Amino acid sequence: MKNSTNKSLEKLTIFSVNSVQMRTFHLTWLAFFFCFFGWFGLAPLMKVIKDDLGLTKAQIGNAMIASVAATVVARMLIGRLCDSWGPRKTYSLLLALASIPIMGVGLANSYEGFLLFRLAIGVIGASFVITQYHTSVMFDKKIVGTANAVAGGWGNLGGGVTNMVMPLLFAGIVGLGYVPGTAWRLAMVIPGVVLLLLSVVYYRFTKDTPAGNFDELAENQTIPSPKAKGTLAKAAKDPRTWVLFLAYGACFGIEVTFDNVAALYFSERFGATLTTAGLLAGTFGFMNLFARAVGGIVADKVGARNGLRGKGLLLAGLLLLEGIGIVLFAQTGSLTMAVIAMLGFAMFLKMANGATYAIVPFVNRKAMGAVSGIVGAGGNVGAVLAGFLFKSETISYTEAFLMIGVAVAVVGAVVAVTRFEPVPVAENELVAV
Fold first, then answer.
1. CB within 10 Å: which end of the chain, N or C, has fewer?
2. What is the distance between the alpha carbons of residues 60 and 274, in angstroms, rounded to a whole number?
3. Rounded distance between C-alpha atoms, residue 119 and residue 158, angstroms
4. Does residue 266 have a pLDDT over 50?
5. Is the pLDDT at 2 greater than 60, yes or no?
6. 20-416, superfamily in CATH?
7. What average pLDDT does range 241-249 have in this prediction?
């Protein structure tokens, strides 16, 4: 590449921050990491919160649904903003606004107040769309799947780390003399402050594209502005967008659900302590360190040889294996076997996350933010639907996991029969490129 300062990079140089592309790469996954930390910081503390606020199983389920429901709409809107306003401003504003309910959730003293804060915190989940958009415009199509998967995976890692760290942070605050009912509230202030600081850093050290910010490009008459209009409608008319919407609901949607319920499940079903349950749940999330990246890397290699058709079949196979793994997890009767089954289906699930977003940038380059937003929203729709199973008083957690496993396998079958290759249309149409 002759000029890497204003073009998409063709190589992911992990240990470099010299170029705007790699600087943006590292800041966007780091921001997403702490967004996950704030988004799911309450999950490993739910047993304490349950006792403190006197929550029922149904109320915990409602809070779980609230934490992902707001993200559905937010992801679609954020995707549109990325296309028109630019990822730099969009991410900076989102980080600043989301820090408020994360720091303020400790003010909740009732179920209703807690539910409203969980709903507001859920908006931070839209950060994923910006992360994927920003890496997509910074890297060449040859490695965009890998770049998206690594950034997304390392960001998702925050969901695992928070399950490990928040119980320890909570214990440390209790050790300072605070009662549990106060300690969980104080613990949430820390991720909120980090997000507020990151909003400033992101605005200062990133750019919308390798060539510059949207505003700068619009002022430069020699370089066309990448801003686009009508992208949400164009993305919504493409059936491939909605198949990927379903696929992401079946992988990332279940990941989000498991992040929310895992610690409580291990604690109540197998009698694990709060710290142990958090560590086990954290192991699930910690696999994002490599598993999602593996999915993106394999998808790029398959795509180079077999095109989008190959990527689609890879995604279908991963979803099928994920579904089988979840069914096995639901049938385990011991903690050891449950952990083994969890690690198995987690690998396929996270690889499917990476494989999905190895396809997204090729659906429609001119409406990439909108496509990314709709598909990302699918992840949260999947989480909302799964959440209804876990809040039911008549369906056990074991039965819920069994139903989810079957549903994921069915989605895999739908993906298998879908053609992701672009179809020729009129030149004036917004098409896949």
1. N
2. 17
3. 19
4. yes
5. no
6. MFS general substrate transporter like domains (1.20.1250.20)
7. 97
